[in-house]
Amino acid sequence: MILYYQMKKVNFKDIFIICFISFFSSFVITLFFYLFPPKTLETHVPHGLNEVVERNYDGPLYVVVAKTFYNLKTLEKINFNNLPPIYFSSHFPLLPLLIKIITYLTGNYFRSLILIAWISSALFTVIFYLFLKKFKLTNQPLLLSLVSLFLPPRWLAVRTVGGTESLFMLILIICLYFWLSKKYFYSLFGSIFLVLSRPPGLWCFFSFLAVTFYDYLISKNKKQTLLKIIKERWALIFMPLTIVALFLFYQKCFGDFWVYFKTNSGTNIHFKNLPFAAVLGYNSPVAEGFLYLFGIYLVGIFILWKQNQKQLALFSLVYLIPNLFMQVDDIYRYLIPISPFCLIIGYQKLILHKAFKYFFLFFLIGIYIYTLSLLPRRMFHYWDYANLRLP
User: Fold this and answer.
1) Contact (Cβ atoms closer than 8 angstroms) between residue 315 and residue 211
2) pTM of this prediction?
3) Strands (E), the chain
4) For the range 233-237, what are the long-range contacts, defined as Cβ-Cβ under 8 Å and sequence gap of 24 or more?
5) For residue 135, what are the CA distances in angstroms to 130, 176, 364?
6) How far is the C-alpha of 326 from the C-alpha of 329, rounded, in Å?
7) Average of pLDDT values for 264-292?
8) Which of 230, 277, 321, 358 is the 20 to 30 A CA-CA neighbour of 220?
């Protein structure tokens, strides 16, 4: 649909380049582990050709949901990683549903999982390219789009393995595309799928709400603006209603409307009453990197505001705020949804500087070394994975 809106302006050569580099960059990771499997793999029994990619967090968890769709008896029978059945309520149903549907074509749950991740990340980058062109956010949309495939460094790993991030990013950029085009109903109808893809989708509700409130505050005729907002953006109610509908579904499956909030077992996420909570509880100098991370994102939001991209700045800021109070060791992954705006659009002057191109080629080597080192250390136990591969 978005391609249809911009068909006359689309440079198909650019689209091809984006898709090729998106797929090829992930293929290189997969090929490396196929040719040089880590010594820790249990290779004395049959396993998938893409085992490191397939076994990585959190892909197998979504395969479990795809195979069981929250059926208590089946979850207990699979007993994946000794996790209690209610734990899977923290894994929302959109990705498992897509895995289930596509598996009718592929015949393999894990193949479907990886296929969705790769296609979603390629489509996200294509639409981000169209987004940059449509709203004239840069005079180098192709370059920024290609850089967005590798920044932040965590994104390469996340979009190569199975998980919800790629799908979430695709839906998010579509919603924002329609929002900035003032096609609010399409944007907010799409946000239903945003909420159903992963829990932070609801944070986007508060981001859209903050942007709407800002539009009301800066208006001269408050009464007329309020009536216009109600008429155009009433579909905001879809997002909280979607959560209510999902929790009603959970009540039917688990017998508890609030089961999602009782799944702390097996997670390492905690909310604190202090900002920069990610640096708490980690007796490691690595925690200092979290401070740099938040600083870089906050400065990026400030630059967006100064660039007069106030809607993107507000959206990103409100999304960032819960992350400031979240204590988790993988905060890099949780900030990925706003990275195209904070890191790519916000810092585009730096990215477009002549010296950056040479630096980035060298930095790309570091990104691959980081990814190849990270993935073998983030795998579920082999026997749980092997059990899931059974028909």
Assistant:
1) yes
2) 0.92
3) 270-271, 326-327
4) 233/184, 233/188, 233/208, 235/184, 235/185, 235/188, 235/189, 236/188, 236/205, 236/208, 236/209, 236/212
5) 9, 11, 28
6) 9
7) 71
8) 321
Would you state the structure tokens that stand for residue 331, as one six-digit string? 């905060």
CA distance 125 to 133: 12
H helix intervals, 328-390: 331-334, 339, 348-351, 354-374, 382-389
Contact 179, 187 (CB under 8 A): yes
- Locate 225 and state its tokens: 């603006």
**Is residue 260 within 8 Å of residue 307, measured between CB atoms?**
no
The single residue listed with the structure tokens 């092997």 is: 386
Distance CA 384, CA 179 (A): 42
Q: How far is CA 66 from CA 60, 110, 116, 120, 248, in A?
A: 10, 10, 13, 18, 19
> What does the alpha-carbon distance between residue 377 and residue 372 come to, in Å, rounded to a whole number?
10
Predicted local confidence at residue 41, as pLDDT: 62
Confidence tier at 7 by pLDDT (50, 70, 90) = low
Q: How does pLDDT run across 232-265, given as a tens digit for each residue? A: 999 999 999 999 999 999 999 999 999 998 876 4
163 phi/psi in degrees, rounded to 5 = 175, 180
Q: Which residue bears the tokens 């028909």?
A: 391
Q: Which residues contact 339 (CB under 8 A, 6 or more apart)?
A: 148, 151, 152, 155, 297
Q: Is a pLDDT exceeding 90 seen at residue 388?
A: no
pLDDT greater at residue 115 or residue 4: 115
Residue ranges per domain, the chain?
7-36+45-267+356-379, 271-346
In angstroms, the Cα distances linking 279 to 103, 276, 292, 323, 374 are 41, 6, 11, 12, 20
92, two tokens: 């929302």
Q: What pLDDT, in 10s, does the model give residues 189-233?
A: 999 999 999 988 989 999 999 999 999 998 888 889 899 999 999
